[in-house]
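Pasting as-is:
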Amino acid sequence: MTMTPWTGDACSLVDAFRAGDRSPTEELEATLAAVYDSDLNAFAHVDPDRARAAAESADLTKPFGGVPTAIKELDAVEGWPNTEASLAFKDRISTYTSVYIDRLLTGGGAVPVGQTTASEFGGLNVSVTKLHGVTHNPWRRGRTAGGSSAGSASAVAGGLLSLATGGDGGGSIRIPAAYNGLLGMKSTFGRLPRSPFAYATPNTVCMGNLARSVRDSARFFDVCGGHDARDPYSLPKAPSFEAGLGQIDLAGKRVAVIPGLGKVPLEPGIEDHIRAEAADLIAFTGMIPVDIDLELPNLTAQWMLGNMATLVADLGDLWPECAGDLTDEIRLGVELSKSLFNIEVAAEAERLRVLNQEAMAGAFDQVDFIIAATNPGTAFAAEATTSSPEPGPMEKVIANPAGVAGLKVALGAARVAKTAAPGLPNRIFERALERDPDTLAMGALTLISNLYGNPAVSIPAGTLDGLPVGLQVLGRHHEEALLFDVALAMERNKPWPMVAPSA
């Protein structure tokens, strides 16, 4: 009888099923027991009946046949809660299943255990919501699991199961992967379909998973990838990533090492750590380091406000009555967008996006890869509602009732003023960036690849003060196979623990 969940990768669990060393039903029972006994708070919903039915009928010939699998709560599964991690939708049930999830469960044969926690609407790289409370990092309780794919990362690194889905609109796979010592691939935009009901804006969200190994991630993309007509931006199915692993000679490939990509301020020790890990990677692959100049303008503020359009559409008539149900940060985002977003902000966002595209294209004319930190530091406090080490001016304002009242007055004035002075919001953002660079740098190390649409992977790269560090490698559009082989080289030469030591 299997007493504890599998601590290897999902692919090796499939091999164990096929060899008769484990059974899907026993594995599921061990998983369910571990989930119920865990203090990580990684799960938002568990469906043991559906999971048991799937395990009993598991087809072991399928790529993930019989593997207990967690689904991020922002992914739709018919009959499961469709809360988007918000109290505003706490009673909503999904009437459909996302296309890529259906492919994972049907063609892939995965066993759906339940939903993992996420940040509200996927809006921040934190692991705390009003609906579900705090999700913890299995490497150290009391530290964040990151976000928005918080519960998926915590569950996989915490030894509860070996496979979980995620989504990355600004770093939401790579950020928690790095904080939890996992591999996180953000593919070329469109590699996995977002359908049905895929918004055209903001064209940055990529679906994927949190993985213990390179082959788990490669197999996942093989199973779930391919065009779907309901997402016109989705790409045709690529040749098998898993079958191609290890087939590319990386010797002679050019790489630029820029730990603080976009001039993002890094916490003490991170730059030296990333440079040392990058040097090791370069040494055992034979890649050639190249120095390049890469200037990336910061459009975080304009991008964040523009993204609120889909949230406003989602909330519909519930706003503004639902404002009290939202986390302070999401509520503030809606208020800011309604007060400050206008055609001038949209125009500036597009101008900066084009400049970013030109800069990234110029960089990839010179190198094959860019290596950077995934996060500016190691996992911060689990209860924190932003990733800044210390509360910034805006956090201090919204934590104070008097500050909130004053902010509402200021936003009302800004709403009026922007009519007479349409350029005012952009000047406000420029001043905010000067005064509080950490706030507007949140996720900036990862966001650039969402804006540009190129693939980027966070690879486990040792620890700093006992907490995982992620080394992020960026590649050209459609070259995931190259990134998988870079990650494979790291995995073979500097293998990482598949679960947290304390799990």
